[in-house]
Amino acid sequence: MNYKKVTVAGGGVLGSQIAFQIAYSGFAVTIWLREPGSIGRCQPKLDRLKGIYLDTLEAMKTDPAAYAYGLLPRDQVTPEACEAAKARVEKAYADLKLTTSYEEAFSDADFVIESIAENPQEKIALYTEMAKHLPEKTVVATNSSTMLPSTFASYTGRPEKYLALHFANNIWKQPTAEVMVHAGTDPRYFDEVFEFAQAIRMVPLKVMKEQPGYLLNSMLVPFLGAAEYLWAEGIGTPEDIDLAWTMSTGAPNGPFRILDVVGLTTAYNIGMMKPGADDPTTPQGRICALLKEKIDRGELGVNAGKGFYDYTK
Description:
Elements: E1 5-9, H1 13-24, E2 28-32, H2 36-60, H3 79-95, E3 97-99, H4 102-106, E4 111-114, H5 120-130, E5 139-142, E6 162-167, E7 176-180, H6 187-199, E8 203-207, H7 216-232, H8 238-249, H9 255-262, H10 264-271, H11 283-296
Parallel strand pairs: 1-2, 1-4, 2-3, 4-5, 5-6, 7-8
Antiparallel strand pairs: 6-7
């Protein structure tokens, strides 16, 4: 693996995290965004991440419970190492480039991670245009939550160098990176991307065949969907549904706290791909309608300050 210049296409909830972690790990990182307004929406996410990384490293000096795998090896956590890592945070933040230019973002990239909305038409449009600007050397991965790389491989112009690399949210402390190929991926690039995931302090997980949802979301999406059903049908409030889960299982977060982290736009886009989503008389249609109401009010989740819960207090 000889990647040095990495471009992340998309600066949403997870795209911004991926870009920040890669920059923190010492790579040159560019974030490609669709329009100038997207830059204004991405920058506050990067500001927030900078604060989280700095605060976490400070806490790690004295509190073992604050440990985040993505920031330092556990056996290297010392006050001095945390201070040095804080300097890396500042450098990563200062060096990140944000652009709407295809040429600037892609013309010299070694590795591209696509992390735009879960919308197949938007992904196809991005890949089709991006392929005009990529050099031969570039490897491309999708961070799609639920879609298969084989769906988009032909649009990339390099199907043998295209695969999936899926991250979990809060990647600095929940550091899984699922690596999944399609039938036309050259195995060499599976190995390279696996090595890259390790280089940015992720724990790479092998997905042995194409599976919508990979490992994590094959379990998580049905779980969240069950909670959304209970909410949309008026069976329970988000707060009580979360308490039913956390108090009965010992889990730190319930499904609606998780949805706020994932982002309600992502949840809505995934929901709209399910049967019955466009029919308001079906449970899935009611779920999507209720999510859309919250999105229209700007209640997008943690990064917006409010989702199912208020994070401004």
